[in-house]
Amino acid sequence: MENLDFIILRTLRDWRRNGSHAVLATVVHTWGSSPRPIGSIMALREDGIVVGSVSGGCIEDDLIARYTQAGVADALPRSGPPQFLKYGVTADEAHRFGLPCGGTLEVVLEFDPDTQSLVDLLQMLDTGQLMHRRVRLADGQVRLEPTDVPADLSLDEQELVNTFGPGYRMLIIGAGQMSEYLATMAQFCGFAVTVCDPRKEYSSVWSVPGVRVVDTMPDDTVAEFQPDARSCVIALTHDPKLDDLALLQALETPAFYIGAIGSRRNNRARRERMIEYLDQTEQSLAHLRGPIGIYIGSKTPPEIAVSVMAEVLAVKNGVALPHDIDVAYVKDQQGMAGSGSVCFTG
Asked: XdhC- CoxI domain spans which residues (predicted)?
């Protein structure tokens, strides 16, 4: 499943190529609770077709009505410089637009975005380049600027800058049943997923569409994958010959999440093995996670995948997880044995 921003931009590009009027809406401010984060985008065509969202639905309905119904008092134009709209200023308005209690958001609307700039932006994004899209508020002129550093949306009196780039990526070592569940969930969350397994009996029967499957050795795959700050590497084979070298290769990269499945005992053994035989130290292994996942009492492959995906998303979003959902901590508190099939994750 492709990154949602890419889907929105491609759709908008195609509308503009076909000569349709369209507007690009970007969330630029939120106060209190908000259904969508700053930087979220939505495209709206002149006939009311929408892709993406800026809220839970009611604001979209208002934008559709104002953009498609010419002649109404608060109708939106089909052209001109960008405009700001603010929703949820009063309690009554927040209720009307379905915003959470105290929620207010502001969007910038760009009318008939330039087709060629959309084409150029998508061409750069398709090569894996991270891009700043700079919009001059006086007239809507767009300037594209390559960058190496992800950034939050920025806005001042002259310019709106939103950063678009390669979506988050997940590399899974092992093509077993749990990998299928995890890959499916990761795709739903907007990750591009690659699965590596040199064992033909596993990789040849992979059944999740949209996932890149390779049969090269895992450490070579990690090197080819080139994990960046938007990448995670997760080892699920339970086989040290496959997992260990791949994890070591990943630890040399800026991947935001690196982890391996296994019980507390197995994870301790992995660390001891890496330190004794692979010249690692506790410091060099500081970013290696295990047991992976959050504690939800999971025992089946789909439940374990939910646990792992939840932890990946928490790390991605910068959420500090409390001790009482850390798998190792909870199992230690419960005094459970560090082995067995029910003990290797959340």
From this structure: 15-69
